[in-house]
TrEMBL record, chain A:
UniProt domain ABC transporter: residue ranges: 6-234
Alphabetized GO MF terms: ATP binding
InterPro entries named among the record's database cross-references: AAA+_ATPase (IPR003593), ABC_transporter-like_ATP-bd (IPR003439), ABC_transporter-like_CS (IPR017871), ABC_transporter_ATP-binding (IPR050763), P-loop_NTPase (IPR027417)
Designated name of the protein: ATP-binding cassette domain-containing protein
PANTHER family with a match to the protein in the record: ABC TRANSPORTER ATP-BINDING PROTEIN (PTHR42711:SF10)
TrEMBL record, chain B:
Keywords assigned: Cell membrane, Membrane, Transmembrane, Transmembrane helix, Transport
Entry annotated with the keyword Transmembrane helix: yes
Family of this protein: Belongs to the ABC-2 integral membrane protein family.
Regions annotated as coiled coil: none
Cited InterPro entries: ABC-2_transport_permease, ABC2_TM, ABC2_TM_bact-type, ABC_2_transport
Record protein name field: Transport permease protein
Subcellular location: Cell inner membrane; Membrane
Transmembrane segments: 20-44, 56-77, 106-129, 141-164, 176-198, 227-249
Keyword Protein biosynthesis annotated: no
Domain ABC transmembrane type-2: 22-251
Membrane topology of the entry: Multi-pass membrane protein
Biological source species: Aromatoleum buckelii
Length: 298, 256
């Protein structure tokens, strides 16, 4: 059996009185599209930084494609591409210069064919000779992605890559990342856009206060935690309350359902109780509900 | 996609040289002009009144001091400003994410800064030639002190650039440590022109030995033996290199 793309075992990290990581265990298989979710301060960026060598964990081990990030850091870093959360750039250089320099840091010379391919894929070819200062925020974000890919890493970590990015660019970016995943790259994504994680990630870990509080396939998480829902607005809202619904604003009441098979019996109970339905909506299970549920109970 | 073991180091060195070269007006030309202004003003005012080592014309005495002062200050400015800018803008991660060792990191920043210092020093020397009759009595000594002095200040720049969290702190390091030590190191005067107390105090200033040793390379004479200067400067270089490497190995303020 091949080694996992990422192995994180018993990793802890403390900043003063704050326990940023409190014993994280995690494995990401090769070729996975993996989501790392959690509220602000949950430890996502600290975990990614520990993996990439930007932060030194207090204890535990982290490996990328079987290479320890401390004792075998050269190989571990060659296997990893990181797209940072902050929109950082070096104002002294053009896009092509930056990508050549970044290639050189990884020991790669004469990398222009691959650089041209990345630039074309990210729609940056026309900006290859532009200074970084001249680019828009979205273009700078794409250059960050390009920088993470110059050494063709098998594992790519994207730390909130679509924060503050417009819809068109976001779509283009995901199309490109999906293609990389199809080509065999392992992708780890952190994002606050839960609908993105739901659509893209095959498996998800949720972090809270430096601990993994949920880890499963996206489908299992949706089934395990989230229920479908039936939202109704009745002429007499108190009836729904008596039947176990959660009352919401505007006279709405929400029934949690395990499957849609429960819709008809629920409506029947409402009719029997004398309630007349003014409006009705069906809600599907979504990751946002799962997230809220997990964070509430963790 | 050919890979080379030292390509990472070479690229960082290239990037650091390119960084200051792209703004050469500010990083090379401006310090040369500053040094020229010092030379014009001090030589005009003092040349007829002061000599160095008894018979050396003041302007001739001054030039090696100005060359070394410019060289030292610019070697420090290069590594310190590059690092603090990268830290504050956040682009330091592009250097921290790749598989570069801390030794490669150190060597690239220090050598690039030495090159800037040497460029500026050579520039000051070149533009001084029309104003002064200068010969190199012992060029090997001059070169040794130029190399070691620039390496020391480049290392100090790495330390300051890593330690400082704000430009303000870096300016403090530069204005309250580097500048006084440089100015009070005998750039503008011979140590023997000072009262005994200040001569003794100057012996605690390692910059004095860098400049005095460098001057020996021009005149074949100096305030103290060049061997003593060489010893002091070598020890300083080893201590600072060890300290800088230890900071980098620990990841001090770079790898939290």
């Amino acid at each position: 059996m091949s080694l996992p793309a990422i192995r994180i075992a018993s990793v802890t990290k403390r900043y003063g009185s704050v326990q940023a990581l409190a014993g994280v265990d995690l494995e990401v298989d090769r070729g996975e599209f993996f989501g790392l979710l959690g509220p602000n301060g949950a430890g996502k960026t600290t975990l990614i930084s520990s993996l990439s060598g930007l932060v030194r964990a207090d204890s535990g081990t982290l490996e990328v494609m079987g290479h320890d990030v401390v004792s075998d850091y050269r190989n571990a870093r060659r296997k990893l591409g990181v797209v940072p959360q902050e929109l950082v750039f070096d104002p002294f250089f053009t896009v092509r210069e930056l990508l050549r320099i970044q290639s050189g840091y990884f020991g790669i010379r004469h990398n222009d064919d691959w650089i041209d391919e990345i630039l074309a894929s990210l729609d940056l070819t026309a900006k290859a000779s532009a200074n970084m200062r001249m680019l828009s925020g979205g273009m700078k974000r794409r250059v960050l992605v390009a920088q993470a890919l110059v050494h063709r890493p098998p594992v790519i970590v994207l730390d909130e890559p679509t924060a503050g990015v417009d819809v068109e660019l976001r779509q283009g970016l995901w199309q490109f990342i999906r293609k990389l995943n199809r080509d065999g790259h392992t992708i780890v994504l952190t994002t606050h856009y839960l609908e993105e994680a739901e659509a893209l990630c095959g498996r998800i870990a949720m972090l809270k206060a430096g601990r993994v509080v949920a880890l499963d396939t996206t489908d299992n998480l949706l089934q395990r935690f989230a229920t479908h829902s039936l939202r109704v607005r009745l002429d007499r809202p108190e009836i729904a309350g008596r039947l176990g619904a959660t009352l919401a604003e505007g006279g709405w009441a929400e029934f949690a359902l395990d499957t849609y098979d429960e819709v008809e019996p629920t409506l029947a109970r409402l009719r029997e109780a004398g309630g007349r339905i003014v409006e009705m909506q069906l809600g599907e299970a979504d990751l946002e509900r799962v997230f809220v549920e997990v964070m509430h109970h963790a | 996609m050919p890979e080379s073991r030292l390509a990472g180091f070479r690229t960082l060195l290239y990037k650091e040289v390119l960084r200051f070269w792209k703004v050469g007006f500010q990083t090379v030309l401006a310090p040369v002009i500053n040094a020229m202004l010092f030379l014009l003003i001090f030589s005009h005012v003092l040349d007829r009144h002061v000599t160095g080592y008894g018979e050396v014309a003041y302007t001739a005495f001054l030039v090696p001091g100005l060359v070394m002062m410019s060289l030292l200050q610019n070697a420090f400015a290069n590594s310190s400003s590059s690092l603090i800018q990268s830290k504050i803008t956040g682009n330091i991660i592009f250097v921290l994410l790749p598989p570069l060792s801390y030794r490669e990191f150190y060597a690239a920043y220090v050598i690039a800064s030495m090159l800037r210092g040497l460029f500026v020093g050579a520039g000051v020397l070149l533009v001084s030639i029309p104003f002064v009759d200068l010969s190199l009595a012992a060029p090997g000594w001059a070169l040794a002190f130029a190399l070691m002095g620039s390496a020391i200040l480049a290392s100090l720049g790495v330390i300051a650039g890593i330690w400082a969290d704000k430009f303000d702190q870096l300016a403090g390091f530069q204005n309250f440590l580097i500048m006084p030590l440089t100015m009070l190191s005998g750039v503008f005067y011979s140590l023997h022109s000072l009262p005994q107390l200040w001569q003794d105090v100057s012996h605690a200033n390692p910059f004095f030995f860098m400049i005095d040793g460098f001057r020996y390379g021009f005149f074949g004479q100096s305030d103290v033996s060049p061997w003593l200067s060489l010893g002091v400067v070598s020890v300083c270089l080893m201590l600072l290199a060890a300290l800088t490497l230890a900071m980098l190995a620990r990841g001090y303020k770079l790898r939290a």
